[in-house]
Structure formats: C-alpha cells, structure tokens
Amino acid sequence: MNQAQTEGDRLPGHSAExxxxxxxxxxxxxxxxxxxxxxxxxxxxxxxxxxYVRRRLIPRDDxxxxxxxxxxxxxxxxLTQYRGESSLRNWLLGIARHKVEDHYRRQLREVQLPDEDxxxxxxxxxxxxxxxxxxxxxxxxxxxxxxxxxxxxxGVVLLWRYWERRSLRDIAxxxxxxxxxxxxxxSRARDRFKKRWNERQFAxxx
Length: 206
Description:
There is one protein chain. The chain is mostly helical. It has two domains: 12-110, RNA polymerase sigma factor, region 2, helix turn helix motif (Rna Polymerase Sigma Factor, Chain: A), CATH 1.10.1740; 130-205, Arc Repressor Mutant, subunit A (Orthogonal Bundle), CATH 1.10.10.10. Helices cover 70% and strands 0% of the residues. The protein has eleven helices and no strands. It has helices at residues 3-10, 15-20, 23-31, 35-56, 64-77, 88-110, 130-133, 137-149, 152-162, 168-175, 179-205. Helix 4 (35-56) crosses helix 5, helix 4 crosses helix 6 (88-110) and helix 8 packs across helix 11. The radius of gyration is 22 Å and the shape is elongated.
C-alpha cells in the first residue's frame, strides 16, 4: 500500500467521524481540500457567525449574508494561522468582530457629524443599555424598528458603544473624529432613540 492510499484511508469518510474531530484536526482536513471536512467546518460554525453578525448589524439585515461570506472568505485565507489556541467558533467570531467594526468605522467616517465648533450644550439622556433593551422579544423587535427609523450613523454609534462596549476615545480614534464629535453624535442618538422608545410605550398604553 503506497503513502497516498494510506493517507486516503485515514481521511474521515462519514459525517459522524467528522463531528468527532477536534477543531485543529478538522482544519487540517480542510487544508487537505477534503470537501466533506469543509462542509463540516461550515456546519460547525455558520449558525453562530450568522447570529452574531445579524445582531450586530440590526436593522441592516440586507448586509448580513454578504458579511458572513466575507468572514468565511477571510477564514479560508487565514486558515493556516489557526493553531487551536481557542475554539474554531471563537476564532471565527474574532474575524466577525473585526468585520463588524470595519463596517461601523466606514459608516461613521463617511457620515456628516455635528459641527465640532458648535458650542451648543450636549443634552445627556439617561443611560441606555441596549443589551437590557434586547432582553425580551418585544424589546428586540422595537429596537430593530427604531434603529431602522433613525439615521444610520445613530444606529451604528449606539451599537458600537453599547453592544461592543467601546469607549468614546476608542471610537474617535477608529473613525478619525474627535471625542467631542463622537460624544455629540452619541448623545443625539441616545436622545432620539429614547424619544422613539417612549412614544411606543405611550402608544401601547392607550
């Protein structure tokens, strides 16, 4: 029996065997161009990546599919760098996090922010915790609908600040803006979101 046959015999041939492979073993099979292993790779990770991206891009469901494809393409291109130090799922979510933040960064770089020289006072809205808001199915639906109604920059800065827990300074550095400009944008976004939220609460009580 030659070496090629021996290696071929070692390749997993059944989905049950593939599911038993460790992440690092599965990656090795994918790198050998095994199509069943590639299918198992996608099956093992796709749902988690899709859910993560969909939640981070609300309400832009139209962008989710393309971004998920970008994430898996980046994973294929960098698969040789995977060393098994974290789970394959977490490794892919790390790529997803960078892609989502690239999206946030592009949106805030392109939008016209309030004039940085405007001396009008910033109106501070009560603390808004989007994680808490999304805790119930009704709140989640309301949030998606309200974010869809707001200027996209407002939605992006709210998600970046409250979902990703990024500081004003970090957002400013990432977008090439000043902290003052980001603070103004975030304040206006919070106030607008809170106003729309209260309007919906009032409407349901009537």
